[in-house]
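Hi support team,

I'm filing this because I wasn't sure whether my run with manganese (II) ion finished correctly. The job status page said complete, but I'd like someone to confirm that the output block is well-formed before I use it downstream. Pasting the exact inputs I used:
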Amino acid sequence: MIRITDILDRISSYNSNADLDLVERAYIYSARIHEGQVRLSGEPYLSHPLEVAGLLTMLKLDPVSVAAGLLHDALEDTKATMEDLTGLFGPSVAHIVEGVTKISGLAFRSYEDRQAESIRKMILAMADDIRVILIKLCDRLHNMRTLQFQSEEKQIKIAQETLDIYAPLASRLGIHWMRMELEDIAFMYLFPHQYRDIANQVAKKRDEQQEYINTIKKMIEEKLEEADLPCAVQGRHKHFYGIYQKMINQGVDFEEVYDILAFRLILDSTSQCYQAVGVIHSIWKPIPKRFKDFIGIPKPNMYQSLHTTVVGPFGERVEIQIRTKEMDHVANDGIAAHWQYKEKGNFDEKTGAAFAWLRKLVEEQKNIKDPDEFMESVQIELFPDEVYVFTPRGDVLGLPKESTPVDFAYAIHTEVGHQCAGAKVDGRMVPIKYELKTGQRVEIITSPNHQPSKDWLSFVKTAKARSRVRQHIKAKERKQSMTLGREMCDKLFRKYHVTLNKYIKSGEIQKAVDELGYKTVDDLIAGVGYGKVTPLQVARYVLPQAEAKDEKETIVTRLKEKIRGRKPQSGILVRGMDDILVRFGKCCSPLPGDPVVGYITRGQGVTAHRTNCPHALNMDPQRRIELEWSPDAEEVYPVRIHVLCDDRMGLLAFITTAISEGDANILDATVKIRADNRADCYFTISVSGANHLEKIVKSVKSIKHVVKVTRLAT
Ligand code: MN
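And here is everything the job wrote out:
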């Protein structure tokens, strides 16, 4: 068992100003609270936090981390409270211990591939301080080293979790020795036969291979020395699980994996690296297309090295990497994240950037002298744009930040989304607009009669939820307009003492469908409901007596033509529907940018009103429809404004100049002098939208002697 004095010595060796007192006090406190507890191994419990602290010193972490490591099980397994820890060791230590405890408390259902990535991200997202992860990794490593004392069932579960979650985390943080050890121990428990097989074969071959490594090493060193290129040569052994993975992934046997050796040449300068590769190629034949120059063209993660594969002295393939000390440093522990090229495809770019940044941090903390400086840089939000939550089954689901239970419901299943009537988060009822947080358990309450509502669109965050809600509303509106269209046609047909149904049954309606440019009868009837065609237009094709009879029809047609001339689609869009006839309410003259609402008018499509228009407020809510302004509207719209000003010479000229300079045309102007020596001016001007109007109103207002400027409804 490691002793506290060893730990203190190690800290001083890499940080001479370290607050050793904090670590010592944490040790004494930990010993007291864990007093009498024993590990499954029979050792005193204290051995575990001590070993974890020891591992933390191998990562050269600061005293706060080491103290937190000594206390990492305090909240879970002893009577100690957050208040105790905060009071005795300060908020940082307490906060980190709390973070480790939270992660340890997460219960995941499975670690299948599909889930593993989300779980890793959830763990990272929950740790707002990277030291939490580092302590958790050291905790896991010591637990793996002592896994033999657990039940077989637990051994399998813990080993699987380690292989799927913690080893990749260690890898991404650039702690390769830890990743390899975690993988090899997990491998031993999960695939004991394969492990023993590989271990035996490696043992059998080890001497032979070591001899081979030495031979090659010597040859390279001699040749490079001749060329005056001092260099360190490293021959690498592969770890057991690495060999196993290569065998599985490439479908090859042990010999083939094991026999390919990789050597690394470390030189002083970049130019020496290029000279060295020349020397290597002159002694051994390079394999075509295997030379890669990552010094000239570094990988995006800053990895730099020359790679080549040659045919070695015994006809075998030898992989050689050549780089400088600095490049090696970056490749091993630094920014160049191993996973970025070995596990390509698992990660999106943004996550990659987060990890690269993290690794840099781990790297840099080794050089930071001031502990406060380190602390500031480790308190981070790793995935600021995402949240990770649990399903009731215990699966982890990643969603964009600020996602709501409705987003969650649609992520589970479209039907669950449609029927989402409410939600529980960690067992408590919440509003469906509730903003989900990482680590929460979400349960959706469904009701078969429930339907998505339009205002869900105002708060859902996922594209899936948005498009599903839109689709649903569109379908619903189509149904509504079909009912409406049917009603309108029936009413007209009754005038001629016939029914629409008769013509549908006989197929005679098809003529109207074709002539009016629809695909099906239903489309035509919906078209009537939407106001794109009038019932009379339909009737004309099936009822000869309707032809040219109704004078009103011609007026309507003319009006429609006129409105169509205004290109109804140009300014306004009906959400979820295309090509709908939209008119503008004369009562309130909406401008682009004004909040608007639409009403389905009988036979005349949709009329747009400003949301605060008194006419609009009185209309039948059943006919209400959501509208939005088209972002690329280029039309101009007339609007009337009233300017109250003092009756001064030349003032009108100032006002009209201000309007013209604001790029608006004056369509009409009237001025009335009042008894109080003031003037009422009325202008009709053309503007492109509410913002444009606002600008003009502002500039008119700023003219001296102008008292008030108001927008008029008509
Ligand atoms: Mn522990």
